[in-house]
Write a structure and sequence with these properties.
CATH topology: ABC transporter involved in vitamin B12 uptake, BtuC
Number of strands: 0
CATH class: Mainly Alpha
Largest sheet: none
Number of domains: 1
Oligomer: single chain
Strand content: under 5%
Number of helices: 17
Distance between the termini: 76 Å
Radius of gyration: 22 Å
């Protein structure tokens, strides 16, 4: 392999490929962890947009849920202190905080559903309002609590896979990547597979796709379009709530204003790149997360040789922005090729019986 690195020009390509493989295999757990809020946000988008409702308010839903989950968990920890259990470090406070985050996501989603479905407000405007309000309120509350901080409730502990699995040649890093995670990250894989099966192999999935493609035709065969859209948008809030809880109860144990860092919008990009399918969106989330891990690796442990010299000469800000650059490049490549559900973003109004 070292001989290939000495080939002019191509040697740099081979060295870059080798470095990419090394980064992925060594940072598998962090890549999956970073992909978690993106994948959950994308699943929320799948639930909404497959039903015909555009949801760009995922960022605000995640941010609001992150704050509520952290705040409620902190209060619960003071009211019912308990030592972490051996199973994921679970405490009553963490479970209550997780439930509060999910409920918050559902409530904000219900607001979006009411504005978009019942009032038929422009769905882009509705999502934008949610993002602005969530950022403003949580930012203010973060400043407010910074002067009188609450004691943290801690966070969920990751599962420790047995060495017999992580030590296997070639595939050991995969077991470590998918198993050495907290409960929210572990649940993503199950949720992605379950939603993919339900969406394309169940009666509910057929009805959801029918409503997202041709709601008037769906209504003629007895499907309650309004009710199904409400239900799916609110259930989409469960995924956004879990994504928010990941920030403050799984990956970290504190809240900072704007901590979602635009991941709700990257989740929408993953949704589009994944062609509105759960598995496709999850793979896109992994790609975006891998770009984040690559940017961190280049800044901390750059490759040796000529490739390292070239990469270290690039400003660090470029690598910090790498996930967003990858998002823009990929979206530019798939626009026009990835087709949304036909009725996506179109308000539905029942025809009069007369």
């Amino acid at each position: 392999m070292n001989g290939l690195f000495d080939v002019p020009v191509l040697g740099l390509v081979f060295q870059l490929l080798d470095y990419l493989v090394t980064v992925v295999t060594l940072n598998g757990p962090i890549i999956l962890a970073l992909a978690t809020p993106l994948a959950l946000g994308a699943l929320s988008g799948v639930m909404c947009e497959r039903s015909g409702v555009v949801n760009i308010g995922i960022e605000g839903m995640m941010l609001a849920s992150a704050f509520v989950g952290w705040f409620v968990a902190a209060l619960a920890a003071q009211a019912m202190p308990a030592a972490p259990s051996a199973f994921f470090g679970i405490t009553p406070a963490l479970l209550i905080g997780l439930l509060a985050a999910v409920l918050c996501g559902m409530l904000v989603s219900a607001l979006h559903a009411w504005l978009s479905i019942s009032l038929r407000v422009d769905q882009i405007i509705s999502g934008t309002i949610i993002n602005i309000v969530a950022a403003g309120i949580t930012g203010y509350l973060d400043v407010l609590f910074s002067t009188n901080p609450l004691p943290t409730a801690g966070k969920f502990a990751p599962f420790v896979p047995p060495d017999v699995l992580t030590g296997l040649p070639l595939v050991g890093w995969l077991f470590k990547m998918f198993l050495a995670q907290g409960p929210i990250t572990l649940s993503v894989i199950i949720l992605v597979v379950a939603l993919e099966i339900l969406l394309f192999r169940s009666r509910w999935g057929l009805r959801t796709r029918a409503v997202g493609e041709h709601p008037k035709a769906a209504e003629t065969v007895g499907i309650d379009v309004i009710r199904l859209r409400y239900r799916n948008v609110i259930l989409g809030g469960v995924f956004a709530g879990l994504a928010g809880a990941w920030f403050t109860l799984d990956f970290g144990n504190s809240f900072q204003g704007g901590m979602t860092g635009g991941r709700g919008f990257i989740a929408l990009a993953a949704l589009i790149f994944g062609r509105w399918r759960p598995v496709g969106a999850f793979l896109a989330a992994l790609l975006f997360a891998a770009s984040s891990a690559l940017g961190i690796a280049i800044r901390t442990t750059p490759p040796s040789g000529e490739l390292g010299t070239i990469l270290t000469s690039i400003p660090e800000e470029v690598f910090a922005a790498l996930p967003y650059i990858v998002t823009i490049v990929i979206l530019a490549g798939v626009v026009g090729r990835s087709i949304a559900p036909a009725a996506d973003g179109q308000p539905y109004e029942r025809e009069s019986a007369t």
